[in-house]
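New to this. Explain these tokens.
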Amino acid sequence: MTFHPLSTDIPKPQKFTFPFFYEPHPLCLLAAREVQEYIETHRLCDGDKDGGKMFGVLVVEDGEGQTGYLAAYSGLLQHAGDDGFFVPPVFDAQQPGGYFKTHESEITALNIEIDRIEQSREYVEARKKAERIKAEGDERICRYREEMARAKAARDARRHSAEAITQEEEEAMTGESQFMKAELRRMKKFYVEKTAEAARHADVLEERIKALKRQRKEMSDALQEWLFRQYVLLNAHGEARDTIDIFMEQTGKMPPAGTGDCCAPKMLQHAFRNDLRPVCMAEFWWGPPPTNELRRQGHFYPSCSGKCKPLLSHMLKGIEVDTDPLSAAKAAAFCAGKEALPKIVYEDKWLMVVNKPADFLSVPGRSERPSVLSFAKEHCPDADGPMIVHRLDMATSGLLVVAKTKEVHRSLQEQFRQHSVRKRYYAVLDGTWRGAAHGTISLPLSPDIFDRPRQKVDYANGKTAITEFRVIKTEGGKTHIHLFPHTGRTHQLRVHCAHSDGLGIPIMGDELYGKKADRLHLHAEYLEFTHPVTLKRLAFEVIKN
């Protein structure tokens, strides 16, 4: 049974969950516990190739006023079974013999044929033969050039010697030079032709491979477009639109692969199809974390921005949704004039150092909220140039240096590029570290393009990110630590602390990679650099309370 009744006197929320920033409602917590028990009882995440999985609960009300919930998992689940506990997909592309699986098998056949040719003995040997002849030609031509250089040096030495040169000798030296140049041209032509002849068979096979890859791309693109057209999503008004229409309107781009298979659209679609009124929603991770992303069993997460945000902008029409709690709180503080401003720690006519408060922008965002840049411009109206030399995450507090001239800005940025600026951060980790008191973390990072602003560990394509750490103390189930970034990647310290290949403990209050608290307990407390004008080494320290 897909609709699971809830027997409880917990009052319902007045508005539906804002899916991209929320605290799980007690009704969702109750439903989630039941789903987690089901997952464990049926061992759904045991042996799954992806490790854990994102699950979701949608509390709903039926036409008779009975409260219950729907449950879903993201993507596919190897051991899900067919007992009807979870809602079905928006569109089931996995039906054997269906349009998608039939055309998918045709694309798979192309992949097999491409692999067969690329790994065939005839192709490999033809390519190796061509490469061998080219290498042989390159080496012989290189040796002949050296021989020509020696001959030229001998001729030059003879011409500069004291002994007179006869006409016959001069003609002989000129002839030798002309012959060697002609021989070099003949040699080059010979090896170009010989290499081309050897590569001709391989080139025929390569053209076949290219043609198959073009055919594969055309078939794959056509199948992907067909698939996206099958995902026709409803909203509370009864309006139906497919994923391509929604994405083209919202982003101007085609949807990414997997769009429509996350928990939220699955559950909302089932609710609308069955005349169930959505009440509140939550998504949680269960099982081992994936290699690249930061996920913890039992933690609740917002809907992803890359795939779900455009879809939910359509699906939640007709439902009264909570305002973004984070934006609402910050906007209220700003309007009330209660938002803390940066404090100037040091200032001269060339630069200043400020202590940025937590939840304060380094540079302007989409809203009209103040930033360190707007503060600096207001404080220094005659300054020129970009001013902002480096940034801190909005949630991070601490020291920033601001340049008042283009020349100083350029000099300071060069110091950051050369890694001559020293920085130290103070962090409180949400757990007890039991490893070494000092060490280095090296985990390459890249943006999670489907769930910005999150970053992920990416061993294949990520940029180098290195952090040194020193443990200060552990008390009360928390770890106080100093962090020394040797590179400056986005969210570097937060990911290096939270990821299982790093410290494995998120920073306290990290809403992206850990759990919410009063604030993100990360503070840039020490900054040291060389003054671009006086050339004195300056050091500043603002200890976190």
